[in-house]
Specification:
Order of helices and strands: HEEHEHEEHHEHHHEEEHEEEHHHHEH
Number of helices: 14
Shape: globular
Number of domains: 2
Strand content: 25-35%
Structural class: alpha/beta
Helix content: 25-40%
Largest sheet: 9 strands, mixed
Radius of gyration: 26 Å
Number of strands: 13
């Protein structure tokens, strides 16, 4: 009896194992979305999805007849409804699990983005590692209708360009869905998102000829960081201010700082290779005071100075001071913009106060925007130059003779 029962259990186990995946989705039934844009038009959402054209991507050489991606659009009262309505003109159901980038139109961002994130939070198919940006001076649909060179799929271009520029230039910041959600729920820090814009002939960006020329007539470019107050976009930081924010937050992995030569009108460039940052908020005489400390390692990357002896300790010390002044100026300009122009704590001083002085924070949090705007912030930057390159000094006068 026991043997028969054991055989029955084994047979039942085999049946369960061999049933396959009942939740499977066949690739031929899906339209894989790699980018999505959300705009607000006539009190409705305008949803734009960039779908991979598998026939052009799978082959080593495409047919040349179709573009590597196709764009579908629909309007609706909710994001979920609008996504399903796209099936009226798309031959397959839109699949969002491979989404690389989400773009908010500027007008939508000004109205508020919190409602649009509800569907994205609930959808079990979505992975939260896609990047979120704002279309600067444009709708999201305008950005997603542009074909790009080097990368066949424009969404991949946007994803990789944001990562690369963040890693080597530090004017941009890659923000994932999880990070944005965390900032929106925080009481002491406001979100920031990188802006993406189009440059050139805006009428021909969707034509295939745009990527068949050595110099495309229209390009996509990341430019500036957007400032939010809560869920609403309220303004933009310029390039210097954007770099200052990244320095203040310790997000600079690698970038270039250009300073003037100590004794002439030439320029010298230092490569920032490592950054350690601390940001704190303390209470002094009953008032909040912010402190930012930066410790930066740098190398000499480019020297255009006529008489500069890099073998002297005093020369290196002078370069370090100039770099410290430059970076401190960028940070202070970003703080001034956040405090005086926008009254938005994009640095997280409120979060730091919440951690260090929770009781004091509970008294201030309802009026934190105004208190932040009047709060003194002390910035301390220390730069250490470690390497001067593979050559020592270069005499331009002798080289020209």
């Amino acid at each position: 009896m026991k043997r028969k029962f054991l055989i029955f259990i084994m047979c039942l186990s085999f049946v369960l194992i061999m049933t396959g995946c009942w939740t499977r989705k066949e690739l031929n039934d899906l339209a894989i979305a790699v980018a999505m844009g959300i705009d607000k038009v006539d009190e409705q959402y305008l949803l734009t999805v960039q779908i991979v054209n598998p026939g052009e991507i799978a082959a080593k050489q495409g047919s040349g007849i179709s573009t590597p991606v196709v764009v579908f659009q629909e309007k609706g009262d909710t994001i979920f409804e609008t996504l399903r309505k796209i099936t009226t003109n798309a031959p397959r159901k839109v699949y969002l699990a491979h989404l690389r980038t989400l773009i908010f139109g500027e007008e939508l961002a000004k109205e508020g983005i919190r409602k649009t994130l509800d569907f994205l939070s609930r959808d079990h198919e979505l992975r939260p590692d896609f990047y979120i940006t704002v279309a600067k001076d444009a709708r999201a649909e305008d950005i997603l209708k542009i074909l790009t060179s080097l990368e066949d799929i424009p969404a991949n271009k946007l994803y990789n360009a944001l990562e690369t520029s963040e890693n080597v230039w530090a004017q941009t910041m890659s923000v994932t869905f999880d990070t944005l959600n965390s900032k929106l729920m925080s009481e002491g820090a406001n979100p920031i998102l990188t802006g993406v814009m189009k440059t050139g002939d805006t009428q021909s960006g969707g034509a295939k000829q745009n990527i068949e020329n050595i110099d495309p007539s229209i390009r996509l470019k990341y430019n500036g960081i957007s400032v939010f107050k809560g869920e609403k976009l309220i303004g933009w930081l310029n390039e210097e201010e954007s770099k200052g924010v990244n320095f203040a937050l310790g997000e600079v992995k690698n970038t270039i700082v250009t300073t003037s030569c100590p004794q002439d009108e030439g320029k010298l460039a230092l490569e920032i290779v490592r950054t350690n940052q601390s940001l704190n908020t303390t209470i002094k005489n009953g008032q909040p005071v912010g402190t930012i400390k930066l410790y930066i390692d740098a190398n000499v990357g480019d020297v255009e100075c006529a008489d500069l002896d890099l073998m002297k300790v005093s020369t290196i010390y002078d370069l370090e001071n100039k770099a410290e002044e430059k970076i401190k100026g960028q940070i202070n300009s970003s703080i001034e913009a956040a405090q005086k122009k926008y009254q938005s704590d994009i640095f997280g001083f409120g979060e730091a106060l919440h951690r260090s002085e929770p009781e004091f924070w509970n008294e201030l949090k309802k009026q934190w925007d105004q208190r932040f705007a009047d709060m003194p912030v002390h910035v301390n930057v220390t730069v250490k130059v470690h390497h001067t390159g593979t050559i020592g000094n270069f005499d331009y006068q002798e080289a020209g003779e």
